[in-house]
Design goal:
By secondary structure, this protein is α/β, with parallel strands linked by helices. The strands form three sheets. Strands 7-8-6-1-9-10-11 form a seven-stranded parallel sheet, sandwiched between helices. A two-stranded antiparallel ribbon has the order 2-3. α12 runs parallel beside α14. The longest helix has 23 residues. It is globular. The relative contact order is 0.11.
């Protein structure tokens, strides 16, 4: 018999929750939002582990820690610089429990916004997913051109609170927070493509949030400017009961519960939907290659193409294109190549796959 904490998610009542969510995900109108309560390692929250490490190794640099807002007060700029580097090093070295990120990467969220500076989700995506990573820098320039190559058929992973690879972008104290609020909610604010994706969204999926914290309040303000989507919260905390009632009514949030069971069921239903689609898929031919290219599944398009080619010259060309594609994959993951060179290389891959497929017989 099911307990209250383990509901039967296969009932018709739950279909009313899952179907709209899956529908929005399938048409890339569901935005995923990740909070600092998500990442764990060895059963402990990473933010707690980071706090303990800083307390042990940088106590002399920290004048005060505000528990409620998870923000520091530093003795001086030099002390803050030391802690910034320590935080960046922590995220460089730590290995989170990977399961939740692997599950997220299996779902079709066109846009994921994170309030933490890590790259854990980006690292969980398969190489042929062509996930794109970008972050908001409250203290520097936010180049609109950085997202010129992003299209909605690719997952965009956007860190609202900086990246551990850029120390000064981290949000560690109230000065950082005030600059973030001023720049993100002012002019020009978030990149146009991010704002457009938020404005077109019909569902927001929250994971790992405490709704009583400043980062959640900031997100809710950003999300509720131009639309009235169905908002879904999962694996969240509300603080006291009054906060819960206020936030649910103020921001029109539909809270559906906590825990892994719901997310596991969402993954299962999406995979089931994919399997049903695959059963009806068209046979491997030039049209399938073209469709996969259009969907941004370049690696898969290349695999199908290489099985269809018969002429030795075409096969040799496809091998060369495959080498270009794997170079693009590796350089993209490494993050060491200029994005313009990467885009040029990727466009060359797509063009050659398209040309080879076009010349195949119908």
């Amino acid at each position: 018999m099911k307990t209250p904490s383990s509901p039967d998610l296969s009932t018709p009542e739950w279909d009313k929750v899952f179907k709209p969510l899956l529908f929005d995900m399938g048409r890339q109108k569901c935005v995923l939002l990740l909070g600092p309560e998500l990442a764990h390692s060895g059963g402990r929250l990473l933010r707690e582990q980071l706090r303990d490490q800083l307390d042990q190794q940088h106590k002399e640099d920290i004048a005060h820690f505000h528990e409620r807002d998870n923000l520091f007060l530093f003795h001086n700029k030099a002390a803050k610089s030391e802690v910034q580097r320590a935080v960046s090093l922590f995220y460089e070295e730590v290995k989170p429990d990977p399961e939740v990120y692997q599950k997220i990467a299996s779902l079709p969220f066109a846009l994921t916004i994170s309030t933490t500076p890590d790259h854990f989700l980006y690292q969980a995506y398969p190489r042929d997913a062509r996930a794109q990573f970008a972050f908001f820098n409250h203290i520097g320039q936010n180049d609109e051109n950085e997202l010129d190559g992003w299209e909605r058929d690719r997952p965009l992973l956007y860190n609202l609170c900086g990246s551990f690879r850029e120390d000064a972008s981290l949000v560690l104290d109230y000065d950082d927070l005030f600059r973030l609020l001023k720049t993100a909610m002012g002019t020009p604010g978030l990149p146009k493509k991010v704002r457009r994706a938020l404005g077109e969204a019909r569902s927001f999926f929250f994971l790992g949030f405490d709704f009583d914290k400043w980062y959640t309040q900031l997100l809710l303000r950003l999300l509720c400017e131009d639309n009235t989507p169905m908002q879904v919260a999962l694996s969240t905390q509300y603080g006291n009961k009054d906060n819960q009632i206020f936030l649910l009514k103020q921001f029109n949030i539909k809270f559906i519960g906590e825990g892994e069971a719901f997310f596991d069921e969402l993954c299962r239903r999406w995979q089931e939907q994919l399997n049903e689609g695959a059963a009806d898929a068209e046979k491997p031919d030039k049209h399938l290659v073209m469709r996969l290219l259009k969907e941004g599944k370049t690696g898969r398009a290349l695999e199908v193409l290489m099985k269809l080619l018969t002429e030795p010259e075409d096969k040799d060309m496809a091998v060369m294109v495959s080498n270009w594609y794997h170079k693009w994959e590796n350089d993209t993951k490494a993050g060491t190549e200029d994005s313009r060179n990467l885009d040029t290389l990727y466009n060359r891959v797509v063009k050659n796959i398209n040309d080879l497929a076009t010349n195949l017989p119908d």
